[in-house]
Amino acid sequence: MIREFALADFGYLLLATRWTILLALTAMLGGGFLGLVVAICRVLPIRPLNWLTVGYINLIQGTPLLGQLFVFFFGLPLFGLSVDAWTAAALAMSIYASAFFGEIWRGSLQSVPLRQWEAGASLGLTYRQRLAYVIIPQAVRISIPPTVGFIVQLVKNTSLAALIGFIELTRASQIMAAATFAPLQVYLAAAGIYFVICFGLSHVSQLLERRLHVAR
Amino acid sequence: MRAYVELIRNTPLLVQLFIVFFGLPTLGIRLNANEAALVALSINLGAYSTEIIRAGIESLPRSQIEAGRALGLTALQTFRYIVLYQAVKAIYPALASQFVLLMLATSIVSAIGATELFHQAAFIESRTYRSFEVYTLITLSYLLLTVGFRGLFSLVYWAVFVRRPSR
Amino acid sequence: MSLVSLENVVKRFGSLEVLKGVSLEVDKGEIVAVIGRSGSGKSTMLRCINALEPVQAGRIMVDGIEVTAPGADHNKLRARVGMVFQSYNLFPHLNVERNVKLALKLVRRMSDAEASEVARRMVAKVGLEDKLLAYPDELSGGQQQRVAIARSLAMQPTIMLFDEITSALDPELVGEVLKVLEELAEEGMTMMLVTHEMHFARTVADRVVFMHEGRIHEEGPAEQILREPGTAELRNFLSAVLH
Ligand SMILES: Nc1ncnc2c1ncn2[C@@H]1O[C@H](COP(=O)(O)OP(=O)(O)O)[C@@H](O)[C@H]1O
Ligand SMILES: [Mg+2]
């Protein structure tokens, strides 16, 4: 079993990368949907709902993702659900992402200046029209850099799923490192793959930012 | 410097930790789990805080420096009495939350078995088989730490930057 | 019948009484300049007329709509009242043409072609036809303010409210905006404008209203009141802004 780290092994890492990407995408979509709900619950003028949401956000943001992964991985079976590492990771990371997306989007919504609401109102736009055509388009633009920034965190954090045994890039590297006895090369290669994905994402965000017209 | 910041910020802490702990021995650098964790976490925090500090100093309007120099202050005095206070005030919140994030991230050090909360849990788990309860408890105990640190940080912020300095 | 009428309007922010019983009539085609110290309640008065602020007492009628009636249709009111602010509140994510077209399509229910036609005409009217596709952040403050005026005018308002629209501009850009206002005045547009440009108030306005501590302290024909102020407060104010 012991051999050199070769091109074929790098291929194996790349193959495992699709699970990293898939997990990140799942967390993005699941967390994105839940995050919208979180953002809305946070701004609706219903006090108890706001407090509940703030509690949820603080709980998720105040505890380590690894702990959340473990709680889901070991906890869900207690409710009679037989979950594999993939399901636990996808669930935990979606919940994790929802707290961050929710806060990012609420902040973006609230950072559109009040006078933009007034400008819309003074043209006779209804509340919904102001929201749909004036406020949300601006909030979306404002939210792009922090949203992409968090997606980068999400991609990196998928590595923690390795610790509950989900075979993505990091877990694959551990297996590969054990097989080849070339841990340095293997982990550097893995780092390289993560870097390409994350740096690429940040770069896209910067390009977008420059091309969108956002209030200053 | 730029490359260091970008490399660290765009790769997972866990992989950085693996490189230090499992990778470096290839080069003859052998660290025990605790040392490796300390090195990896420091390198990681270093990159993030470099970025935060750079952004903070850049956010300070040039006119502040010019105003200082125009009053006849030396470059050093301008830095000491004008730039420093404002820059630290601007940087502080981001630095504080980065610290909390790092504290939460210490949980992954258990992956290489350093003595830290989660590792203790793995130990307890093997004896009690009540992994869910144990992990939930440990996870929630981080919440206490987070709340505690956040409270402490806001208190310091208030004492230093909000309360008017004594006249 | 007057186009705008305020009867004993009282406006409070918490315990701070900002308008202490303001009464005012503005006729169709009239141009009223509102002057007064900062904090005297000028902006608040304009904002109440456009229902951006609710009032605590009194009655406001605009073009037959009772603004202060419970359940009054504020969007209908605002579609008829044009308002331009000190901070040029263009929508930063839309280019000039789409800034003007937005309310035409949503409120006036125009087709895209109709709205484009109106937008082009209005933007040309303020002398910016070559900027139709520019974004607000590509325009100077004066140009942005002219677009904001065009955007309001496109709605064919029966009255225009201007709140210190030249105060945030560099001095060399003030002229181009005032010129647009002068043209509007010649067309017979009813206008209420808060301004610190006393020369402009004197030459363009029919009437000047001087606000002081939440009340209309003095009012009268522009030429006369500015030349011979009747109260010490207005005299002090004028000597402060003119020197
Ligand atoms: N939204 C608000 N909340 C509390 N006070 C306000 C608000 N808007 C205005 N004021 C106060 O009302 C007074 C009149 O303001 P304003 O009408 O803007 O004056 P002007 O336009 O004449 O300078 C000021 O004292 C101001 O501080
Ligand atoms: Mg004002």
Q: What is the chains' assembly state?
A: heterotrimer
Give the domain tally of chain A. Answer: 1
Query: Given the helix and strand composition of chain A, which structural class is it?
Result: mainly alpha
Figure out the total of helices of chain A. Answer: 8
Mean pLDDT rating of chain C: 93
Structural class of chain C: alpha/beta
Give the proportion of residues in helices of chain A: over 70%
InterPro entries (chain C): AAA+_ATPase, ABC_ATPase_HisP-typ, ABC_transporter-like_ATP-bd, ABC_transporter-like_CS, MetN_ABC_transporter-like, P-loop_NTPase
Subcellular location (chain C): Cell membrane
Protein name (chain C): Amino acid ABC transporter ATP-binding protein
Membrane topology (chain C): Peripheral membrane protein
Write the layout of secondary structure elements.
The complex is a heterotrimer of chains A (216), B (167) and C (243).
Chain A: H1 7-43, H2 47-61, H3 65-75, H4 85-110, H5 114-122, H6 127-157, H7 169-180, H8 183-211
Helix pairs in contact in A: 1-2, 1-4, 1-7, 1-8, 2-4, 3-4, 4-6, 5-6, 6-8, 7-8
Chain B: H1 2-9, H2 13-23, H3 33-59, H4 62-70, H5 75-105, H6 117-128, H7 131-162
Chain C: E1 4-13, E2 16-26, E3 31-36, H1 42-49, E4 57-62, E5 65-66, H2 74-80, E6 81-84, H3 96-106, H4 112-125, H5 141-153, E7 159-163, H6 171-186, E8 190-194, H7 198-204, E9 207-212, E10 215-221, H8 222-227, H9 232-242
Parallel strand pairs in C: 3-8, 3-9, 6-7, 7-8
Antiparallel strand pairs in C: 1-2, 1-4, 4-5, 9-10
Helix pairs in contact in C: 3-4, 3-5, 4-5, 5-6
Magnesium ion binds next to helix 1 of chain C.
Pfam family, one (chain B): BPD_transp_1
GO molecular function (chain B): transmembrane transporter activity
GO biological process, one term (chain B): amino acid transport
Describe this protein's structure:
The complex is a heterotrimer of chains A (216), B (167) and C (243). Chain A has 216 residues and is mostly helical. Chain A contains eight helices and no strands. Chain A has helices at residues 7-43, 47-61, 65-75, 85-110, 114-122, 127-157, 169-180, 183-211. The mean pLDDT of chain A is 90. Chain C is built from nine helices and ten strands. With 243 residues, chain C is an alpha/beta fold. Chains in contact: A-B, A-C. Bound molecules: adenosine-5'-diphosphate (ADP) and magnesium ion (MG). Adenosine-5'-diphosphate binds at residues 13, 16, 18, 36, 38-44 of chain C. Chain B: Residues 1-153 form the ABC transmembrane type-1 domain. Chain B: The chain crosses the membrane at residues 12-31, 90-114, 134-160. Chain B: This is Amino acid ABC transporter permease.
